[in-house]
Specification:
There is one protein chain. Strands 1, 2, 3, 4, 7, 9 and 10 form a 7-stranded antiparallel sheet that branches. This protein has a 3-stranded antiparallel sheet with strand order 6-5-8, with no helix packed on it. The protein has 10 helices and 10 strands. The protein is α+β, with helices and mostly antiparallel strands and 316 residues long. The radius of gyration is 20 Å and the shape is globular. Helix 4 crosses helix 5 and helix 4 crosses helix 6. 41% of the residues lie in helices and 18% in strands. The longest helix is centred in the middle third of the chain and has 25 residues.
Length: 316
């Protein structure tokens, strides 16, 4: 069943789970089941309300406030908001994101549900099951501008697909739902647990991980670290076991493994999503990293998703 746009300005919705086609793809989460995208909102600027109406339901919300000052109700309590701020709500939590008079917050929102009636989990359980690592993201906390921008970009891409209704729209949307989970993990868990860079080589590694899917080269990494490309290449390989561009490929192949195991997106689209124009070349890179081609890796069945690269140590 094709997605449909909701009537509210700026909000785009898919059919309710009970209305969707039985064979519509889900994002598979071990122990939780399939997740289905319900709606997304980009740069919400709905008129303020006089009185909020807090509510709870069996849905997950990822809300990234990008700008402004205001408040929301999170887990039954009123919380002050100053953008950028990331807010996560899980099934059963009392919440409301409606703006009151005098508030000027702007937010992006992605909402999804489970395919299993009555199933629920907190964001800590959800992300831990998806990544295979212990995760404890804050329910409400200031975030980086990059975090809010990433969620906003994903919501915009979702809205474009829902509006255009291209072939395989549900598959494309599930891939973007996986990207949203990855963005939350990256910004709210992985980056929060890492100490600040202590030297130029560590700064270079973080730049590679943050921009792995962008068309970067060794010179771009060197400029970000403030080093010459020659010195950076030697020092980076000495510390992390591989030069910067080889390390970047390892990061991309780990992300590819997660997408292959948790979404139904075809191999060529996974390749394109990670910046590979030639899916055959992508397949060779994946096989070199994981020992089997992408299709065989997916057919092997559920397994713990590949965790992010370590903060230090050697790369295979």
């Amino acid at each position: 069943m094709m997605p449909r746009a909701a009537t509210a300005a700026g909000r785009f919705a898919l059919p309710r789970p009970e209305d969707a086609a039985a064979d519509s793809p889900f994002l598979r989460i071990p122990g939780i089941g399939g997740l289905r995208l319900l709606h997304c909102t980009h740069a919400d600027r709905d008129p303020p309300v006089a009185v909020r109406s807090p509510h709870r339901h069996d849905l997950w919300h990822c809300v990234a406030y990008s700008a402004g000052r205001g408040s929301c109700i999170h887990d039954g309590a009123v919380a002050a908001i100053t953008g950028p701020t990331l807010v996560l709500t899980a099934p059963g939590q009392l919440h409301s994101f409606s703006r009151l008079a005098g508030e000027d917050t702007v937010y992006h929102e992605v909402t999804f549900s489970t395919a299993r009636p009555g199933a629920s989990a907190g964001w800590d359980v959800l992300l831990s099951a998806w990544t295979g690592t212990a995760c404890a993201p804050p329910g409400l906390a200031p975030c980086t501008t990059a975090c809010a921008a990433d969620i906003g970009t994903i919501a915009t891409r979702m809205a474009a697909i829902i509006s255009a209704r291209p072939p395989h729209a549900p598959v494309l949307l599930q891939g973007l739902l996986a990207e949203m989970l990855l963005a939350v993990f990256r910004h709210a868990v992985a980056e929060a647990e890492r100490p600040a860079p202590v030297d130029a080589i560590e700064a270079a590694r973080r730049f590679v991980e943050a921009h792995a899917e962008d068309p970067i080269d060794l010179d771009a990494v060197a400029r970000a670290a403030g080093l010459s490309a020659k010195h950076l290449g030697r020092a980076f390989a000495s510390r992390f076991g591989a030069p910067p561009m080889r390390y970047r490929r390892s990061v991309l192949m780990r992300r590819a493994a997660v997408l292959l195991r948790t979404s139904d997106e075809p191999v060529d689209r996974v390749a394109a999503r990670l910046g590979y124009g030639d899916w055959r070349y992508f397949s060779r890179c994946f096989a070199a990293e994981h020992g089997v081609p992408p299709a065989a890796y997916r057919r092997a069945g559920p397994a713990d998703p590949v965790p992010p690269p370590p903060a230090s140590g050697r790369v295979r």
